[in-house]
Amino acid sequence: MSVAPGWYRDPADPDTQRYWDGEGWLGAPIPAEATPPAGPPPPEPEPATEPRPAPGPAPGGPPVPAGDPVAPAGYDAPPGHGAPPPGYGAAPPPGHGMPPGTPVGPYPASASGPPPGPPYPTWPGRPVEPRPHGLPLAGYGARLVARLIDIAVVLALNVVVNFWFVQQYIREMSPPVAELWSRISNQERTTEPLPPAGEQASSLQIAILLIATALWLAYEVPSMASRGQTFGKRVMRLKVLPVSTAAPLGFGRALRRWNTLGLPTLLWWCCGIGLLLQLIDAISALFDRPLRQALHDKRAQTVVVQLPRTPVPHDRPAPPGESP
Length: 324
Hints:
By secondary structure, the chain is of the alpha+beta class. It has helices spanning about 140-160, 165-185, 200-225, 230-235, 250-260, 275-285, 295-300, and strands at about 5-10, 15-20, 25-30, 240, 300-305.
């Protein structure tokens, strides 16, 4: 199969990497540890050619006419000057002046095979990991810790706001739960149904889920829209950026990103379907290549990056002799 254009390890020198355009190598090699540019390398400037001096007369021989050297294509020699001899100025035949067995010309480009060089088992070298906006992708462990911190913050908010509703819900559910625990403790085998829960149990459950979802939305969406970071992401030095630009997410994109992960909270009461959807969304980043996007990242076209430990200063010192 054909190899897509990109930066790969140079087969001739594994310590360097070069750009493969699908048919041949382009540009000069760069160190293997260096970060290559986003596209192909800039074209190399052509070396300046110095004009060849006109041949002078041989010692003791007749003067050489000025029109005898190799003339460019389409040049007519002035009258009285002889034309160049046949084959004079033409390209030498293949292999001329080279030892026997020396290959002549560039390597043959093949569109259905790997780049020229030693054969590779499956892929020519290790693919270069993308760096969106010049920043490395966030690791799975750092993203998990940041999410757990955010869950702890939202849970603390629910303890404060949802405490009364949870207390009333436990009171409504206490008759069937107490009866079930009594039968298990006494090892009773009976087919009698459990006593029903209170009349307000279903309403309280929906109210609790609505309040929990609203608290999560109010905690995450505004901070992601303005800074691309929640409290957990700031602790772990992570940031969410759009794939296409380094600008803030904005409220619309932040809301689309949260909807995929946050709205299934309303389905927790339905046999845990909401929790299952959130689990699938959370682990989807483990199987995505190359940007490690979860389902909510794909919907909003965002990517999670790792910020450097020390911020890069944006202001450079003024040159000597100039006031800032």
